[in-house]
Write the structure tokens for this entry.
Amino acid sequence: MTLVVAEQNRGKLHRASWEAVAAAQELAGDQPVEALVLGASPAEAAAELSHAAVAAVHVITSALLEPYTPDGYVDALQKAIAELKPGHVVMAHTYRARDFAPKLAARLDRALVTDCVGIRRGAGVTFLRPVYQGKLVAEVSAEGDAPHFLSVQIGAYRADNAKRGSVPAPVKAMAITPDGASIRQKAEEPFQEAKQAVDLSQAERIVAVGRGIKAQEHIALAEKLAAALGAQLAASRPICDSGWLPMERQVGSSGQTVAPKLYVALGISGAIQHVVGMKGARTIVAINKDADAPIFEIADYGIVGDLFEIVPAMIAELQKT
């Protein structure tokens, strides 16, 4: 059995959890997939997850699990894994998973393969993960006893490719309570709720700017387009390094990994360090005056021209609707 550890916050299911379901279904093949969601009030998230083609959705409800702490999660998940006995445990490679998954795998002395972008079957199962800032892809085999832990890069699998069930899966409450004495940390405000911060991995539409924006005062033009599209504003690394936008707006190998439904790239050349952070977008629109810019190789729609002429025209048309 393959177990998906889904992530929720205040009852809302993280959209990347559906991507983890899609990866788990591919990994499991004909074997069953089950899901697990935990928190202080996970019922709504569990109900949403029950529409996936899974054998069951397990729920751990405890006030000790919110606000999130790695100690609370590890204790609860260790007990759940001992009871459910999965062969693989799959989760999205979110900030939270990056925090608790290594500790959980180390406590159980089991293999953990992080930030995977694909699964390959041959004599056994190998996992694909990018290395050297996405320039190469390594094939990794997990050794040792089950369960093996796997985190899936956001955008590597499409949420809408997760198979849905014909009827809702049963939701089963687990009689598990984390040990309060084991929780040693005091949680601070989550990253996405910090002042001026944003979790771009949750955005459905993104407008991103690169060097082609030329000057900080021109960021306002991109902000107008983002507002017209109902999108979040993001940037490539040079823009954030220059201080034109805060670092939490950076997309790429040293920033956030995103998979929106729409990604509009303004004046972005398409260096591999940026592309690895946004190539999972469903639709990519690139605007660049350089017809040979690498971004056009992955764009679904490309416009060769001056963004300072094209973007105002786009805004004007959007404001008509």
Observations:
- The radius of gyration is 21 Å.
- Residues 70-84 form the longest helix (15 residues).
